[in-house]
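sry for the spam today, last one i promise. C-alpha cells for design, 1343 residues
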C-alpha cells in the first residue's frame, strides 16, 4: 500500500481542517470531523466496505480482515486456515447487507462468505458444492444475495448466473437468451418487494418470478460508464428510494425510474465520477447521499444536488466504501487513509494559529481590516500580542458590530467594509503605555454608548454633540472601594451601570440617575456575589432582566432587579468553573470558553454540550476576552494553542436515540467467549441469560451506537431486582455485579446521545442466576418436609414433655403425699414409740426395783415374766420404728469398732433360757481369731436376734439351733443360722421376706404362727442396707427338715492394734444397754453427802414419769419440775440449776430446741443437760449431742443408770468448780504475765470476766453491778452462775483478780499507793488490808 507522510498525518487522531477563504457569500463545505486509523484499532487503513447491521454495529472491511466497530473498540475477524468457521481470507474487497440482515463479504481471492452478525457465524458461500463444482471468476461487487439465499453473479460479458442452492441448480440469464438488453451488467439490487433489478449498458431490467424471465426498460439516452481497459468489470450502485423510485447514476447524471408510472427522469451531476455513482445511501431525514471522487453530495427533490463534504487529501480521492449511518453520520472508506467521518449536525470548527494577536488575526482574515492600524498600536510591538485581552466588542440595536481598543471606538460598516470610528476618548491611553484604555463598551436600551477605562473613568458618547462626556470620575469609585481599581467590563441598563473588577473588588452598580454606587463583594454580600474575581458580562437573549457574568468560580446569573444570583458550576454539568468569555448566537444559546473546551449552554433549559480538541478545536484551554461575534453570526474564540471560528447556526440538535448493544461479557472475570454455551455475538439476540449459581460475578460491556462523538455519550444501567435506581456510569460503558444472589433479574441499559439526552431505546436482558441444588425448589421442598418433620417431632416432643411433666408433677404430688404420709407415719411411729416407751419405763423400772425387795419364788417368777414381756414389747416397738425408717430411707449405717464374735457370743446368751425351756441345743461356732471389724452392732443384733428367735420358735423340743460366724478376711464375715425345725416348703420360700407374711405352723395344727410377720423382712432389708447377701434353703434330710439362712456382710477388717478386744458397750440384753452394774451405783451413792444438795431441773410432759424420776432422785437433790421446754427455759434462767433432765418430745417447745437455747444463753450455758427420749437412733443421739447435750439416755432406762449418769455429771461439775475456786482464790497461784491466761483452759466465761475487769482495772467505781451490766446479766444471775462455776461470789472474783494484778505491779516496782490506784482501790489502807488478808503479808513486805 502507498503510505506517505501526508497520509500518516491524515490518519492521525487529530482533526485536520483546511482553510477556506471566506468571500461573504460562499458556504463552507463540511470537512471530516474525525479520522479513524490503525492507531484507533482499525486493522488496516484500506477500507473496502461498510455495513451497519440491525443492532447498529458498523462492520468495516479491510485488507486485514473484517472489524466490528461499536464506537469504542474494534472486534476483528480474521482467517484461520485450520478453522473453516472463520472468514475465507483477510483481503476484503467489498461488503453488502441483504434483506435478512446477513453480511455478504467478498474476498480478493474471489470467495464470498455470509456472516450472521447476530451469532457471528460464518458460512463460506462459494465453498458450497454447487458453486465449487461450477466456479466463476467474480466481477468486483458483481454479485447479490437475495432473501431466499440465492446468489446472483455477474458473468463478465455474458449476463447473469443465479445459483439456487436450495434447488441445487444454476440459471443463466443473458442477451442471447433474450433476458437482457446487453450482456455487460453494471448493477444489481433487490427491492422491497424482493424483485431483482439489473442495470446493463442500455436498459434497466427486473426479474419476473412468475415467468422466470427478466423484463427490460430501455433508457432513452446513452449511458456513460467510461471506456478504459477492464471498464466493463466496474460496477455501479442501484438504489431504491423511499418513494419506490429506482435511482442510479452514470458519469453525467442521476437517473430515476418510477416503477409505478414507468417514467424516467434525470438530474445532471456537478462533477464526473470515474465510472458512475458507486453507492447511494439514505440519511435519517430521508434524503439520499452519494460520493464522487471523495466529495459527498446530498440529493432531495426539493433542493436538488448539493455538496456537503469532502475528503481533504486529494491524493486519496478513491473511496472504495461509503455509508450514511442511522444517526446521519457519513462514513468514507479510503485507500490507505482509514475511515473519514463527516458529521452534518456539528459546526465546522476552523482552527488557526496566531499570526499577531487574536482579534487582529480574526478581523484581518474575516473582515480584511487591521485593528493595529485602526487603534494605532503596531502589531510588531512587543506587547501587541496581549491586545487580545483588551479588545471589547458589542452590538447596537441596528445589529452593527462595535469594537473598542485603547482610546478608539468604532463600528463595522458592511457597505464600505470599513470601521467607522468615533472621536478618541481623551486621557485614557498614551503612546508610551498603549495597553491602557478601554475596558468595556455597552449600549444602553436608550441607544447611548457607555465605556469604562481601566482606571475607573465612566463616559458616555453624546451623539448630538459628537463627544465623550465624563459621567463619573474614577476617584468616586476608588473612594467607594477604598483601593485602586482594575476594571474588566461594563453593562449598561436603562437606569443602572454594572461594572466588574478583576482585583477582588467584586461588582459595582452605579445609578444613572443619582450616581450612587453600590459595592457588592463576596464578603459583604455572600448570597449575591459568590466570587469577587469577575470577568465579562452578557445580557440574557430572551429575558431582559437577567445578566450573565463569567467568573473563576462558575457562570453567574444575576437578576438585575431583585439582585439575586444563581451559580452554575461543574456540579451542574459545566466542563470547568472558569468562564473566560460569553457570547450568544442567533438561536439564543450561550457559548462559553473555559479551561476545558468550548461549551454550548441553553440559558433556560440549562442543557450543556461541550466541544473539545477532538471536535476540531485547536486546544481545550481558552483565554480571557478572546472572543468575537462576526456580523454573519459566526463566532470566534481564542485559546492557548490558536483560535477557531465556526457557524453556531450550523449546529443541529441531536435528536438521535442511539441503540445500546452488548460488546462483551465477563463471567467471573473470564470472557464469555471462553464459555462454550455463550458467544458474545449472541448477547444482543438473547432475551434471557441463565447462569449457574457459581457464575454470578458479571461484567457487561456495552456501547451506545452513535459514532459522531462516542466520548460524549453517557451511560446508565439498572438491574431490576437488585438495584433500586439507575446507576449512572457517565462515559464508562461497563455494568459490573459481584456475587449476585440466585434469583431472576432484568438488566436495563441506556445510553444518551451527544447532548446528554437519554435514549428511548433501552437494551433489556432477563438474567437468571440459578439456585444451587441446596437452594432449588425441590431442596426447599425437602427442607420444608424436614422442617415439618422436625416441627412434628418437636411438637410431639413438647407434647410428650408436657405429658411427662404432668406425670412427673403428678408423681411429685404423689411422692410428696407419700413423703408426707411417710413423715406422718414416721412421726406416728416415733410418737407411738415414745408413748410406749414411757409406760414401759414405768413398768420395767419398778419391776427391777422390786426384785431385790421380794424374795419369794412366786414373786420373782412373776416379776421376771413382767420384765421379759416388757422387753419383748420393747423389741417389737423398735422393729416397727426401724421398719418405718427403712421405708422412708432415713435408716443409716453407724459403724463401730469391735469383735463381732464376742458380740454374738453375748447376744446368744440372751436366748439360752428360752432354748433350755424347750430342750433345744443352742450352739455357737466361730473362728477363734475373728479379730476386730468395723460394723453396725444395732443392725447385726437385729439380724441375728430375728433369725434366732424364729429358729427357736419353729424348732420342736429336743431340736438344735446352730449359729456360725466365719471370717472372710477383707471380704467381710460369713454368718449362718441353721435349725432342725419344721422347715419351709419350697413354694413358700419366695414369700418369706414379704412384710406381715406368716406361714402355717404344723406344730400348732396348721394355724398361723405367732408373731408379727416382719422379722424376716427386716432381716432382708438390714442385710441389703449393709450391701450384704442373704440366701435361704430348707432341704429335707432324712426325716427332718433343715432350714439354713446364709448371710455375707462386707464388714471392713480393722487395722492390727486398733483395738485389742471388742468394747463391752456393744452388749445388749433385751434392748437395754448394760453399761453399769448395781454395785457401781451403790458405790456412788453411799459416799458422803455434799455440803449443799444439788438443784436438778426436770422437764417432762408425763407427770407420772416425772414423779417417778423425782422420787428416785429426791433423796440427795432438790428437784424443780417443768412440763415443757418453754417453761423449763424460764425455770433455768430464774433458778440456774446444777443439772437439767429433759424429755425430747414435748409440747410447746421440744427438748432439742430447749437444749439449744440453754447452751446459747450465757446465763445458762454452763449447766449440764441429760436428754431423756424414746428416739434411740444414732442420728437422734448425734442431733442431741450436737446441740450441746452432755448426755443422752433412751427410754425405757434403768433407774440405777439414770442415778449414775446424774451423779457422774454433778461430780464432774463439783471437781471443775473446786479447781476454778483454787485457781481464783489461791494466793500461791503463780502470777502470770497476763492473768487472763490463768484460767484460759478452764472456763471461757471466767476469761470474759477477767477481760472486762482488766479494761476497768483502775476504775474505783467498777463493782459487781457494773460487771453484771457488762455481761448483760442481772446481779442475781451473775452471782448464781459464778457461784456455780467457782463456788465463790462475783465480788470475790473481782477482788482477787485486782489483788493478783496488784502483786504483779508491786513486782514491777510500783509502790503501794500507786498499785492501789492502778488496781481500782480508792484507799491505800483498804488495799493494804485486803492484800494482807489474801497474801498474808503487807504490800511492802510482798515487794
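last one done:
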Amino acid at each position: 500500500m502507498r503510505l506517505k507522510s501526508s497520509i500518516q498525518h491524515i490518519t492521525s487522531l487529530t482533526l485536520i481542517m483546511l482553510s477556506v477563504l471566506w468571500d461573504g457569500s460562499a458556504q463552507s463545505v463540511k470537512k471530516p470531523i474525525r479520522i479513524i486509523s490503525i492507531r484507533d484499532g482499525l486493522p488496516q487503513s484500506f477500507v473496502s466496505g461498510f455495513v451497519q447491521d440491525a443492532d447498529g454495529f458498523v462492520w468495516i472491511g479491510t485488507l486485514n480482515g473484517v472489524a466490528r466497530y461499536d464506537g469504542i473498540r474494534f472486534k476483528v475477524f480474521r482467517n484461520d486456515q485450520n478453522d473453516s468457521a472463520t472468514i475465507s481470507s483477510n483481503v476484503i474487497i467489498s461488503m453488502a447487507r441483504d434483506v435478512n440482515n446477513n453480511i455478504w463479504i467478498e474476498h480478493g481471492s474471489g470467495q464470498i462468505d455470509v456472516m450472521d452478525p447476530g451469532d457471528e457465524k460464518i458460512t463460506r458461500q462459494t465453498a458450497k458444492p454447487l458453486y465449487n463444482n461450477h466456479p466463476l471468476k467474480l466481477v468486483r461487487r458483481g454479485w447479490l444475495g437475495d432473501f431466499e439465499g440465492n446468489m446472483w453473479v455477474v458473468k463478465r460479458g455474458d449476463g447473469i448466473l443465479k445459483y439456487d442452492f436450495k434447488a441445487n441448480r444454476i440459471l443463466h440469464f443473458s442477451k442471447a437468451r433474450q433476458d437482457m438488453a446487453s450482456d455487460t451488467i453494471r448493477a444489481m439490487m433487490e427491492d422491497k418487494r424482493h424483485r431483482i433489478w439489473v442495470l446493463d449498458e442500455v436498459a434497466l431490467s427486473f426479474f419476473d418470478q412468475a415467468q422466470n424471465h427478466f423484463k427490460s426498460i430501455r433508457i432513452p439516452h446513452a449511458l456513460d460508464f467510461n471506456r478504459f481497459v477492464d471498464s466493463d468489470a466496474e460496477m455501479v450502485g442501484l438504489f431504491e428510494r423511499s418513494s419506490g423510485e429506482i435511482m442510479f447514476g452514470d458519469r453525467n447524471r442521476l437517473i430515476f425510474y418510477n416503477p409505478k408510472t414507468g417514467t424516467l427522469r434525470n438530474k445532471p451531476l456537478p462533477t464526473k465520477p470515474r465510472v458512475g455513482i458507486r453507492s447511494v445511501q439514505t440519511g435519517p431525514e430521508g434524503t439520499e447521499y452519494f460520493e464522487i471522487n471523495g466529495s459527498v453530495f446530498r440529493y432531495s427533490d426539493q433542493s436538488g444536488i448539493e455538496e456537503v463534504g469532502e475528503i481533504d487529501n486529494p491524493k486519496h480521492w478513491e473511496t472504495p466504501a461509503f455509508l450514511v449511518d442511522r444517526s446521519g453520520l457519513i462514513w468514507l472508506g479510503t485507500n490507505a487513509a482509514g475511515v473519514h467521518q463527516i458529521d452534518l449536525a456539528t459546526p465546522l470548527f476552523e482552527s488557526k494559529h496566531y499570526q499577531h494577536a487574536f482579534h487582529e488575526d480574526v478581523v484581518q482574515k474575516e473582515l480584511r481590516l487591521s485593528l493595529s492600524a485602526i487603534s494605532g498600536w503596531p502589531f510588531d510591538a512587543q506587547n501587541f500580542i496581549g491586545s487580545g485581552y483588551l479588545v471589547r466588542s458589542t452590538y447596537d440595536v441596528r445589529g452593527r458590530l462595535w469594537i473598542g481598543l485603547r482610546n478608539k471606538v468604532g463600528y463595522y460598516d458592511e457597505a464600505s467594509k470599513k470601521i467607522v470610528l468615533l472621536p478618541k476618548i481623551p486621557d485614557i491611553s498614551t503612546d508610551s503605555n498603549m495597553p491602557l484604555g478601554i475596558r468595556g463598551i455597552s449600549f444602553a436600551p436608550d441607544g447611548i454608548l457607555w465605556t469604562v477605562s481601566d482606571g475607573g473613568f465612566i463616559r458616555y458618547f453624546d451623539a448630538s454633540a459628537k463627544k465623550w462626556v465624563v459621567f463619573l470620575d474614577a476617584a468616586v469609585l476608588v473612594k467607594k472601594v477604598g483601593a485602586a481599581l482594575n476594571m474588566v467590563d461594563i453593562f449598561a441598563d436603562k437606569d443602572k451601570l454594572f461594572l466588574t473588577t478583576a482585583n477582588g473588588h467584586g461588582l459595582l452598580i452605579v445609578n444613572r440617575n443619582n450616581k450612587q454606587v453600590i459595592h457588592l463583594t463576596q464578603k459583604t454580600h455572600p448570597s449575591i456575589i459568590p466570587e469577587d474575581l469577575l470577568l465579562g458580562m452578557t445580557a440574557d437573549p430572551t429575558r431582559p432582566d437577567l445578566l450573565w457574568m463569567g467568573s473563576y468560580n462558575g457562570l453567574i446569573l444575576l437578576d438585575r432587579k431583585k439582585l439575586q444570583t444563581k451559580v452554575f458550576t461543574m456540579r451542574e454539568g459545566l466542563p470547568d468553573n472558569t468562564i473566560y468569555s460569553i457570547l450568544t448566537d442567533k438561536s439564543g444559546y450561550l457559548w462559553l470558553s473555559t479551561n476545558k473546551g468550548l461549551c454550548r449552554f441553553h440559558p433556560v433549559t440549562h442543557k450543556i454540550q461541550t466541544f473539545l480538541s477532538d471536535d476540531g478545536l485547536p486546544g481545550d484551554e481558552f483565554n480571557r476576552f478572546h472572543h468575537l461575534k462576526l456580523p454573519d453570526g459566526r463566532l470566534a474564540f481564542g485559546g492557548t494553542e490558536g483560535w477557531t471560528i465556526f457557524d453556531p447556526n450550523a449546529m443541529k440538535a441531536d435528536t438521535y436515540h442511539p441503540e445500546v448493544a452488548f460488546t462483551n461479557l465477563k463471567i467471573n472475570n473470564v470472557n464469555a467467549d471462553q464459555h462454550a454455551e455463550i458467544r458474545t455475538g449472541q448477547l444482543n439476540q438473547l432475551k434471557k441469560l441463565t447462569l449457574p449459581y457459581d457464575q454470578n460475578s458479571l461484567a457487561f460491556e456495552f456501547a451506545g451506537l452513535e459514532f459522531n462523538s462516542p466520548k460524549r455519550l453517557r451511560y446508565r444501567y439498572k438491574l431490576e431486582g437488585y438495584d433500586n435506581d439507575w446507576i449512572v456510569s457517565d462515559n464508562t460503558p461497563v455494568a459490573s455485579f459481584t456475587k449476585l444472589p440466585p434469583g431472576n433479574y432484568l438488566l436495563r441499559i441506556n445510553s444518551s446521545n451527544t447532548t446528554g439526552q437519554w435514549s428511548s431505546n433501552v437494551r433489556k436482558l432477563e438474567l437468571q442466576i440459578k439456585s444451587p441444588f441446596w437452594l432449588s425448589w425441590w431442596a426447599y421442598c425437602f427442607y420444608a418436609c424436614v422442617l415439618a418433620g422436625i416441627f412434628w417431632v418437636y411438637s410431639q416432643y413438647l407434647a410428650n414433655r408436657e405429658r411427662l411433666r404432668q406425670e412427673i408433677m403428678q408423681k411429685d404430688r404423689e411422692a410428696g403425699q407419700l413423703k408426707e404420709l411417710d413423715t406422718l407415719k414416721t412421726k406416728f411411729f416415733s410418737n407411738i414409740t415414745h408413748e410406749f416407751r414411757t409406760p414401759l419405763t414405768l413398768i420395767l423400772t419398778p419391776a427391777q426395783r422390786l426384785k431385790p425387795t421380794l424374795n419369794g419364788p412366786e414373786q420373782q417368777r412373776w416379776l421376771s415374766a413382767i420384765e421379759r414381756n416388757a422387753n419383748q414389747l420393747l423389741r417389737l416397738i423398735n422393729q416397727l420404728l426401724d421398719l418405718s425408717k427403712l421405708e422412708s430411707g432415713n435408716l443409716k449405717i453407724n459403724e463401730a469398732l469391735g469383735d463381732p464374735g464376742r458380740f454374738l457370743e453375748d447376744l446368744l446368751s440372751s436366748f439360752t433360757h428360752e432354748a433350755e425351756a424347750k430342750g433345744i441345743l443352742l450352739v455357737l461356732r466361730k473362728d477363734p481369731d475373728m479379730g476386730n471389724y468395723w460394723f453396725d452392732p444395732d443392725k447385726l443384733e437385729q439380724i441375728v436376734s430375728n433369725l434366732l428367735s424364729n429358729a427357736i420358735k419353729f424348732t420342736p423340743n429336743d431340736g438344735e439351733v446352730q449359729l456360725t460366724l466365719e471370717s472372710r478376711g477383707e471380704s467381710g464375715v460369713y454368718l449362718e443360722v441353721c435349725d432342725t425345725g419344721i422347715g419351709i416348703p419350697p413354694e413358700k420360700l419366695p414369700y418369706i421376706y414379704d412384710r406381715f407374711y406368716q406361714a402355717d405352723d404344723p406344730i400348732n395344727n396348721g394355724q398361723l404362727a405367732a408373731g408379727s410377720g416382719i422379722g424376716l423382712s427386716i432381716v432382708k432389708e438390714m442385710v441389703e442396707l449393709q450391701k450384704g447377701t442373704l440366701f435361704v434353703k430348707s432341704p429335707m434330710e432324712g426325716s427332718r427338715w433343715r432350714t439354713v439362712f446364709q448371710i455375707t456382710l462386707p464388714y471392713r477388717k480393722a487395722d492390727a492394734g486398733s483395738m485389742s478386744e471388742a468394747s463391752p458397750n456393744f452388749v445388749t440384753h433385751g434392748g437395754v444397754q448394760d453399761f453399769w452394774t448395781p454395785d457401781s451405783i451403790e458405790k456412788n451413792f453411799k459416799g458422803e453427802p455434799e455440803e449443799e444438795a444439788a438443784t436438778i431441773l426436770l422437764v417432762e410432759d408425763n407427770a407420772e414419769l416425772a414423779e417417778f424420776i423425782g422420787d428416785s432422785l429426791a433423796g440427795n437433790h432438790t428437784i424443780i419440775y417443768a412440763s415443757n421446754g418453754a417453761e423449763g427455759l424460764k425455770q433455768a434462767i430464774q433458778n440456774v440449776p446444777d443439772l437439767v433432765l429433759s424429755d425430747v418430745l414435748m409440747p410447746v417447745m421440744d427438748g432439742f430446741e430447749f437444749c439449744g437455747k440453754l447452751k446459747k444463753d450465757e446465763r445458762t450455758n454452763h449447766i449440764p443437760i441429760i436428754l431423756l427420749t424414746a428416739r434411740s437412733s444414732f442420728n437422734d443421739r448425734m442431733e442431741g449431742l450436737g446441740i450441746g447435750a452432755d448426755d443422752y439416755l433412751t427410754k425405757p432406762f434403768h433407774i440405777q443408770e439414770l442415778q449414775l449418769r446424774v451423779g457422774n455429771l454433778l461430780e464432774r461439775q463439783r471437781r471443775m468448780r473446786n479447781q476454778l475456786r483454787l485457781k481464783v482464790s489461791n494466793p500461791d497461784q503463780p502470777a502470770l504475765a497476763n492473768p487472763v491466761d490463768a484460767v484460759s483452759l478452764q472456763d471461757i466465761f471466767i476469761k470474759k470476766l477477767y477481760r472486762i475487769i482488766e479494761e476497768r482495772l483502775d476504775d474505783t467505781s467498777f463493782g459487781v453491778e457494773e460487771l453484771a451490766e457488762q455481761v448483760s446479766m442481772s446481779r442475781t444471775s451473775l452471782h448464781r452462775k459464778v457461784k456455780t462455776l467457782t463456788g465463790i461470789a462475783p465480788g470475790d472474783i473481782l477482788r482477787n483478780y485486782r489483788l493478783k494484778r496488784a502483786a504483779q505491779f508491786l513486782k514491777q516496782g510500783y509502790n503501794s499507793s500507786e498499785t492501789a490506784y492502778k488496781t481500782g482501790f480508792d484507799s491505800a489502807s483498804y488495799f493494804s488490808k485486803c492484800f494482807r488478808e489474801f497474801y498474808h503479808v503487807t504490800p511492802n513486805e510482798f515487794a
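The longest strand covers residues 758-769. ok im logging off now
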